[in-house]
Design brief:
This protein has 226 residues and is an alpha/beta fold. It contains twelve helices and eight strands. It binds SN-glycerol-3-phosphate. SN-glycerol-3-phosphate binds next to α7.
Length: 226
């Protein structure tokens, strides 16, 4: 399982990369714009924070040729390892094999149906990114979507990985992992959401209390080195 950070905030990315098993970062035009800074500066700060993990950036051009030009410039600026995000439009579908021929890692993004995911895989995309919560919000079933894509990819022998995106809670993340997603991209607060559990906190409280009842303030280090 690969965990990506869906953010362009360098400080937040650096902190999460320090503590969690992070595979990289995903950005899109909305996420970059949220930082409200000079685009080059924002992207370079993200690269510095994410180090040699995979950095995704998205094209804004809407023709295949324009997307390829965006991809080249983004990769030149951001450096490797780099993945370009291409929306699953007709022009995007045309751009994917062109980008693969130039050696790009390609993520097909804004996927909301199994047919879009199938076309992206056949075009050669390395990742396909279904948007779970946004689909649930319009009475879709994001988990079923991932399940169907995973089944279809397996049936067709595609190596394309499912990069599930757009979550509002840890339950959705657990469900897409069980449904067959090989990677997820998460808003920063969801990393803590995946990890924290009140029963873990209760267990920690009991460990502290029981230890202190016998050893007081002494730590393991204190006791083993005395
Ligand atoms: O990576 C896609 C993602 O940014 C969409 O997430 O939370 O805006 O629906 P959200």
């Amino acid at each position: 399982m690969q965990y990506f950070i869906d953010s362009a905030n360098a400080a937040v990315i650096a902190a999460l990369c320090r503590d969690f098993p992070v595979a990289g970062v995903t950005t899109n035009p909305t996420i970059i714009a949220r930082e409200k800074g000079d685009f080059r500066t924002v992207l370079l700060a993200v690269r510095k924070a994410v180090g040699d993990r995979l950095l995704h950036a998205q094209v804004t051009a809407e023709t295949a040729e324009g997307m390829c030009a965006d991809a080249r410039d983004l990769r030149a600026l951001a450096g490797e390892p780099f993945a370009v995000k291409i929306p699953v439009t007709r022009e995007g579908l045309r751009a994917i094999p062109m980008l693969k021929a130039e050696g790009f890692t390609v993520t097909a993004t804004a996927v909301f149906s199994p047919t879009q995911a199938m076309l992206a895989a056949e075009a050669g995309a390395d990742y396909a990114a279904p948007y779970i919560n946004r689909f649930d919000t319009v009475c879709g079933d994001g988990i079923r979507l991932v399940n169907d894509i995973a089944l279809l990819y397996a049936q067709n022998g595609y190596a394309t990985k499912i990069l599930a995106a757009s979550f509002k809670n840890a339950m959705q993340i657990a469900e897409v992992m069980a449904a067959g997603a090989q990677s997820v991209t998460l808003a920063p607060d969801l990393f803590d959401g995946m990890l924290s559990h009140p029963m873990t906190d209760l267990a920690m409280d009991a460990f502290r209390r029981d230890w202190a009842g016998v050893y007081g303030d002494a730590s393991v280090q204190d006791l083993l080195r005395e």
